Amino acid sequence: MKRLRCLWVIGWLCLPLIAQARPPLPAQVALEPAQQQWLDEHRSLRVGLVLQAPYAQFDRRLQQFYGANVELVNALSQNLRLDLTWRGFEDQAALEHALQAGQIDFAPGLAQTPASLRDWLFSDPYMRVPQLVVGMRSGAVAVELEKLTANDRVAVRMPSRLADYLRSNYANLNLQGVPNEREALQLVLGGQAAFAVLDEAQLSRLSRESEFGDLAVVGDIGLPQLLRVGSRRDWPLLAEVLERGLQAIPAKELEQLHQRWLQPKYPRFSESAGFWQNLALLFGMLLLCALATLIWRRRQQRVLERALLAARESLVQRQAREEALRLSQFSIDQSTVGILWVNWDSHIRYANHAAERMLGFAEGALLERPLIDIEPSLGMDRWLELWRRARTGDGADLQFESQCRCFDGSLLPVDLSLSFMRFRDAEYLVVYLTDVTERRRALAALRESEARLKGIAGNVPGLVFRLERDAAAGELEFPYISEGSEALVGYTPAQIQQPDMGLRNLVHPQDRADYHRVQDIALAGDHDWSWQGRILTRAGDQRWADIKATTRRLADGRVVWDGVVWDITAGKQAELALAGSQEQLRELSAHLESVREEEKARIAREVHDELGQMLTVLKLELSMCELAYAELDPGLNERLASMKRLITQLFQLVRDVATALRPPILDAGIASAVEWQARRFEARTHIPCLVQVPENLPPLSDAKATGLFRILQEALTNVMRHAQAHTVQIELVHEGEQLRMTVIDDGAGFAVDAPRPASFGLVGLRERVLMLGGSMSLDSEPGEGTSLSVAIPLKQEKQP
């Protein structure tokens, strides 16, 4: 009765939870006749979701979507009685691409922008996601962004629409860009930023982690993100039906959806540091009490030990003798080796449990049986001969393999070992039986495995070998060469195994030194080794081979190398052909770049000389007209002055065009050109630029000077567009036979290995450096700036 009463109470307490978990009944949506007719014809719709927690995620174990937007669409589906097909996308761009391809019909959780109105029909907002300011919980007060100073660093994800809004509306903020919201909160915890700005959805996802339990919301920036349902533009009735379905969802359900998925949740009190400190103090007190109790019990135990010491000492010797006897008997009875004591008449006087279990006899059933009953080959004559040999010490044949007959008549393969023993006044031969069934099975499996290995190695399209060092002579030998050697190099395994042959004599003479170096290093250190190069067949043909060998240490301490020789001739030839093709393309690109620079220089000279000369003549003619006719008509004088100003502007435009095509400063040397370009960069961007160039540089060809100058222009353009730097350093250094140029900025930086959108800036820089015969290195980290270093040879290369 008590158990039933407890179950009734638990069920009564769980009734509110069951009622709360029960899904609501679908509401009735009032639609117009045209809308209802369209909906009846289009019950099956395709939903697109952007997979971003907590809006939408995919559970691979359950194979279903979940999240705030998923629950919203499920409510729409119940209200409108839709048959939905779900699709998930990694980002907004993939979702829009699927919409343009006609793969989805509508998508929840979209923000309306001027650009997105061309592709979507949007509903009214169904959820408001505020942008929150987060700070430390200790001493947290309301924060107003207008009152923050430059010392209060604010972390925000960049690039983002939120960062653009803060930069344009709060000029006083000291913004620090981070790649994601987690790092923004970590900067606040680490004291590197005073506050972090992020939306409520991401805060609700991260606030569930105990790491961010010391953070709290201290403000709202007033820029909420309004979530809408977007549908395809060619179905306006779908947008109207979805709008009616959204209006039918009660506001209370939307509020519960917001609280369940987007409301920030903070760790429980048990996860705070103070709770664990108090708990540790309590455990410390309990430990002190336990130690005091233990000390008291130890004192009582010593009193009892003194009382029992005398009685214990009297039993020690007796127990030791009994224990030794029991251990001896137990060891004999439980041994895995069968033991039989046999008298001179070949009758068994003692058999341990292992012998009885091994032969299948009951306990005591072997006693007084003649040995010939279990070993048919031991007749009386042979037994007496073995007895004589064991008694006189001639034990040459006292260990041999045999087969014993079990109780059920089956034969058991065993190893028999005989030993003579005298016990009290009697003599015995002790027969030791060892079951070798598993050993024979292992030997058979080993032989089968070796045969299978040889069959596999013989069918491998290459040469399989084993290399080991002779322990006596210390020389290398090949104990195994597969049959594939004849198909690969034309030699039989026996020919390759000859001491004066081996794999080294198969290697091409020009590659033999490198092969010896790689193999000798591996053999000296007992390491794996790998080598690629050319080998010669018996017919003299040249092939490319890939030789790999792995080290394995045997049980006796010897080290062997198991390896394979693969024929990679076809792949290597394709690789060499591809490398040659790439080199030809790079030479063609260098030639085209040189032709283009020469054409730019020619056009710059023609623009500067021809147009400059014509403009000079025009200006002189205009001055003559001004002297001759300006006094006759005041209006004409004003017109002539205006024309002179236009000619002056045209002069400046001609200079700018000629400079853009080929700066004349290049004729003064690369050092002057670098200084001139740095000053132009400072004037254009107002970013200080520190330049260090040597006083005396060796002569540099016009093509290399122009190429190095174009590399500097492209680097400074990247700094101006992307780096958001405060200072730039340019250094030109003469290092032996090379000229090195380094451009360093203290901007935002980027992850060098991270995937980036399609951009040919760095690709163009690298190809231009390779065309000059130089090398380029790029070093950058997010928030740590960027360093670009380019080195080109000073020695003039021969033109093909």
Automatic annotation (TrEMBL):
Say which domain of life the source belongs to.
Bacteria
Residues making up the signal peptide according to the UniProt record? 1-21
Q: What is this protein called?
A: Transporter substrate-binding domain-containing protein
The cross-references to PANTHER family, in alphabetical order and at most eight, read:
NITRATE/NITRITE SENSOR PROTEIN NARX-RELATED, OXYGEN SENSOR HISTIDINE KINASE NREB
Q: Kindly give the SMART domains that the UniProt entry links to this protein.
A: HATPase_c (SM00387), PAS (SM00091), PBPb (SM00062)
Q: Where is this region: Disordered?
A: 776-800
Residue ranges occupied by any PAS domain in the UniProt entry: 449-526
Show the stretches that span the lipid bilayer: 275-296
* Domain Histidine kinase: start-end pairs: 602-796
Cross-referenced Pfam families, in alphabetical order?
A: HATPase_c, HisKA_3, PAS_3, PAS_4, SBP_bac_3
Q: Which keywords does UniProt give here?
A: Kinase, Membrane, Signal, Transferase, Transmembrane, Transmembrane helix, Two-component regulatory system
